[in-house]
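Final report, closing paragraph on structural work. Over the funding period we assembled a curated collection of sequence-structure pairs, and we close with a single example.
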Amino acid sequence: MMKGLVVLLASAALAQCLHKVPLMKGKTARDALKEKGLWEEYRKKHPYNPMAKFSRSESLTNDADLSYYGTISIGSPPQHFTVIFDTGSSNLWVPSAFCSSKACDDHNKFYPWLSSTFEWDNRRLSINYGTGGMTGFLGGDTVEVGGAAVKGQVLGLSQTEDSFMTYMSADGILGLAFQSIAADNVVPVFDNMVRQHLVPLPVFSVYLGGTDVQSSEVVFGGADPNHYVGEITWIPLTSATYWQVKMDSVKVAGQTVACSGGCQAIIDTGTSLIVGPTADIDSLSSRLGASTNQFGEAAVSCQKVRSMPEVTFSLHGRDFTIPASAYVLQSSDECTAGFGRGGSQQLWILGDVFIREYYAIFDAAAKHVGLAKSA
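Its predicted structure, as stored:
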């Protein structure tokens, strides 16, 4: 499978069919709140619970260290929106002109009556994420993603949004997981891209770069070999719901500190941290010399980052190692390890901290994920 994919990607004709979405990393909502002296108050009122969400080329921006987002358009003529490309959910939704929540005030809103291709749908929609949720209704229209026009895409239009969206730059969310977990059994955007023959392969891939705002991207229809080095390791899915795989262990300095005996993990672009069961994360944090602060974050000494050990995640018999320089998140006034508590649920989330180190290829047909060292 890998050899065939590489050969196909080498074809100039195929390269013209790939739809790339560049991802941008910009000023985060966290930075904006800190400048206004509101960050501490916001963290107290809106604690992040990433486990709660489990009820062609375009630029992405890193927002509040929680997600990457890019630009799409909806309707005829097109109305433009920024959306989080989230492999941990399956629905597309944006704010509607009928939204009454404060969270919608500073975001672009979709006006159905301005689109000649919009179709009304009388079904209601309600979705919950790790930091809150939205309610609204469904409709259908043309959605353009990375230059590909998806006809008749069913999408959500919010009427209420929880306050967590107020401080996020993205207008909405575009889910890239499977239809089996989509609210109202809506066909996801990527599924329709495949059905409408808008991509050459039922594959998309994600590269999350560093501080270069032009470096990150999503490629629909294949992978970009310029963004990874070495071989691709293909890992079969254990569940075609999220992009879920079996994890063998979590090790520090060759010793297993978590996921002893195996556990389940999902590859999730919509979560910034690496999240695990609370007991496992506490064990890992202790081994790293981190202390849990009042917000549940694993605080570490900025002066000790260079001497901190690597953390290794074993997936399908292959080790994927994350150095301290990658998993320690540094801001102007603190350093925290990029590991979050997920409660008692025995599921790990390998979020952006992991994906920045490993290029991720999502194969919907073969139902496996490919990982390779990011270039």
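The chain has two domains: 2-207, 226-374. DSSP finds eight helices and 27 strands in the chain. We thank the funder for supporting this effort.
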